[in-house]
Amino acid sequence: MTRFTARLRPLIALAALIITVPACSAMEKEMDTPPESEYTQAEVYAPAEAAVAELVEVLPDFPGFAKRSWGELPCSHNGVDDPGYTMVEIRYQFSAEDSATPLVNEQYVDLLREHWTSLGYEIARDDSTEGDGGVYRDLRAITADGVSIWYSAAYLATFMVSFGGCVPVSEPGSIAYIPPSGGIEPGSEGDAVGDYFPDGIPTQHEAIAPFESPETYDGDL
Predict the structure, then answer these.
(1) How many CB atoms lie within 10 A of CB 211?
(2) pLDDT digits over 99-127, tens only?
(3) How far apart are CA 29 and CA 88, in angstroms?
(4) How far is the C-alpha of 7 from the C-alpha of 182, rounded, in Å?
(5) Distances in Å between the alpha carbon of 9 and those of 1, 39, 54, 126, 208?
(6) What are the backbone dihedrals phi and psi of residue 76, each rounded to the nearest 5 degrees, phi first?
(7) Where is the signal peptide, in residue numbers (predicted)?
(8) How far apart are the C-alpha atoms of 180 and 220, rounded to whole Å?
(9) Is the pTM of this model over 0.85?
(10) Side-chain-side CA neighbours of residue 57 (13 Å)
């Protein structure tokens, strides 16, 4: 087992989905019945952010992210969006300059393809498209448990983490601020989570170092 594979397993064990942000989301969850969930909306941000920190740690020569944002995807019941449930998304983008480098645009795609294949995941999508800005790559894998994992290496290379499927919606005030990983300064222009904290983003937390995983998030839950 390679060092990368060994370090990637905790990430996958957290059921992280790394995907591209579509114009109209293809991740809308159809529910026959409201799902049972181990987590609520307020409880999934910390483990999802921990998954990003694990991912950053195993990517070689990691250049740092430019932007972090949070959002949700709708969950529907019998064809109707259920306002009581949501699918939490955490998005991390590289800068346009880093997105255009062979490291981010090519090597990360090849590295992820190799190791997802070595873990027995189905490669459901593996596209390369010529565009005005160069070659755009789109990689999607599906685990044995049905977890979809996407990485888009386009004009703005993007990871998105969606943790735990549909979860019960929490009151806005119960959502705790989690500092970003990958070198983004908490509360900076790149820390685009202000809609969740109308009274201002707490900045007393230290940012998660690009090559260090947090020991615990207990104080942030």
Answers:
(1) 14
(2) 999 999 999 999 888 877 887 888 988 99
(3) 12
(4) 16
(5) 11, 21, 9, 22, 20
(6) -115, 155
(7) 1-25
(8) 13
(9) no
(10) 20
Q: What would you report as the CA-atom Rg of the chain, rounded to the nearest whole angstrom?
A: 17
pLDDT, tens only, 54-96: 778 778 999 999 999 999 999 987 789 999 999 888 899 999 9
In this structure, the strands spanning 67-77 and 80-93 are antiparallel
Task: Please report how many Cα atoms fall inside a 13 Å half-sphere around the Cα of residue 113, on the Cβ side.
Answer: 16
β-strands 167-168, 80-93 pairing: antiparallel
Q: What backbone torsions phi and psi does residue 13 show, to the nearest 5 degrees?
A: -60, -25
127-161 as b/e, with b when 16 or more CB fall inside 10 Å?
Answer: eeeeeeeeebbbbbbebeeebbbbbbbbbbbbbbb
| 61's tokens | 């020569």
Q: Describe the crossing of helices 3-13 and 108-118 by its angle, rounded to 10 degrees.
A: 80
